[in-house]
Amino acid sequence: MASTYQLSAEMQSFVNQCALFQPADDSLSEMRVAYDALCRYFTPVLPDGLQVEDHLLLVAGRHIPLRSYRPAAPMPPAGWPCVLYLHGGGWILGGLDSHAFIAAPLAQECAAAVLVVDYRLAPEHVFPAAFEDCMAVWDQLRVDGLTLGINASRIVVAGDSAGGNLAAALCMAARGKDGPALRGQALIYPALAADPSPPAAIEHAAAPLLSRVDMAYYLAQYAPDPATHADPRLAPLMEANLQGLPPAFVAVAEYDPLRDDGLCYVQRLLAHGIAAECHVGRGLLHGCLRFWPQGMETARMYRALVTALRRLLAGQA
């Protein structure tokens, strides 16, 4: 049964502010214009002294753009511990600018480099293009991280929404590779199945800011071939064997059709003996982390993420 919502003042304010950024029409180009404007609106001034640098990684004859955020401090001799950040946006929106709101403060608070990947977007590039780009970046970092000032033995992969999907898929594909292993995974309201998991998918099918219809649209752009929907690189919950995955932190929003994707993933990790922590943002909506500087419950989610990343980067499951 679908839910009705008595939103907190915090979440109602977030919804109202997001409503200021509606696309002029239903075209993808206008959706991207509106999303980019929303992202700029919710991006605070960057911390003083933060070092921000763009890079191009050459892979198989094409360049993958990256952006690094580093603290205002000398680089450790072995290179910076690193949060490899994969942005959300339904696989069709976002890029290097869209997630400065989280990448910049994490670099300062975790005393780490945060490396954002500008993976190829759908529908111009369908599955598995985004996954392949993220995997290519990880493959390069683990063999030559110091070129970017990264300590390859201290990397945690993180992402929100579609980025959480890519982060989980990357962790599964990274198992057994030569060189350093990932220290951990931090997933923020991740999409982990081709069809969101019940009961949240039913209870919150019409939730504000992300509905089940929205998710079906995003999936159709990214993975138009239904034959791919059981592929764990697209739907990590389809992976039967979770052995060998790195420790996890998963944050979910209570009023989100994707909530139970994250909860199910944590339960399955624990059942496989993998250390996993779950943070449930009470009364929160999908995408809420953008509001962390303005709200108490969103700030609690942000603080839980920072604490988990510090622990994972230090190798403390």
Automatic annotation (TrEMBL):
The UniProt record lists the keyword Phosphoprotein: no
Pfam families to which the protein is assigned, alphabetical: Abhydrolase_3
Task: Please tell me whether the keyword Aminoacyl-tRNA synthetase is annotated for this protein.
Answer: no
For this protein, what is any one GO molecular function term?
hydrolase activity
Show where the Alpha/beta hydrolase fold-3 domain sits: 83-289
Task: Give the active-site positions.
Answer: S161
PROSITE patterns according to UniProt: LIPASE_GDXG_SER
Cross-referenced Gene3D superfamilies, in alphabetical order? alpha/beta hydrolase
Q: Which UniProt keywords apply?
A: Hydrolase
Superkingdom of this entry's organism? Bacteria
| SUPFAM superfamilies on file | alpha/beta-Hydrolases (SSF53474)
Q: Which family is it part of?
A: Belongs to the 'GDXG' lipolytic enzyme family.
| Protein name according to UniProt | Alpha/beta hydrolase
